[in-house]
Amino acid sequence: AINYDLVKQMEQINVPTYIINGEIDTIVSVATAKRMYSIIKNSQIKSVPRGSHFMHTENPLLFSGILKKIFDEK
Predict the structure, then answer these.
(1) Nearest 5°: phi and psi at 18?
(2) Is 30:4 a contact under the CB 8 Å cutoff?
(3) What is the largest CA-CA distance in the chain?
(4) Alpha helices of the chain — where are they, by DSSP H?
(5) What is the model's pLDDT at position 74?
(6) What is the pTM of this model?
(7) Alpha-carbon distance 55 to 67, whole Å?
(8) Residues of the chain falling short of pLDDT 70
(9) Are 52 and 24 in contact (CB under 8 A)?
(10) pLDDT score of 9
């Protein structure tokens, strides 16, 4: 989906959505994540300091902690 406009698909998302973005992500920039947040209804955004696009594999404890916090809030 690189260089593919997904705005129409994002506009159709109607379930609670969490956007987890790394501040040093070079694939999906913070600006792009914020744009996604503005398009997807009922979304929340979490920007992770020092997080990259692959934070789920580079720092799985951090990533799983973020997910745990999200699920604990529900």
Answers:
(1) -105, 125
(2) no
(3) 35
(4) 7-11, 30-39, 55-58, 60-72
(5) 66
(6) 0.83
(7) 12
(8) 1-2, 74
(9) yes
(10) 94
CA–CA gap between residue 40 and residue 17 (Å, rounded): 8
User: How far apart, in whole angstroms, are the C-alpha atoms of residue 15 and residue 55?
Assistant: 24
Show the tokens assigned to 74.
Answer: 């529900």
- How many C-beta neighbours within 10 Å does residue 21 have? 22
Q: Residue 1: its pLDDT value, please? A: 56
CA distance linking residue 35 with residue 56, whole number of Å: 22
Do residues 23 and 48 make contact, with C-beta atoms less than 8 angstroms apart?
yes
Closest CA to 17 of 39, 50, 49: 39
Cβ atoms < 10 Å from Cβ of 40: 22
- Phi/psi at 54 (5° precision): -110, 30
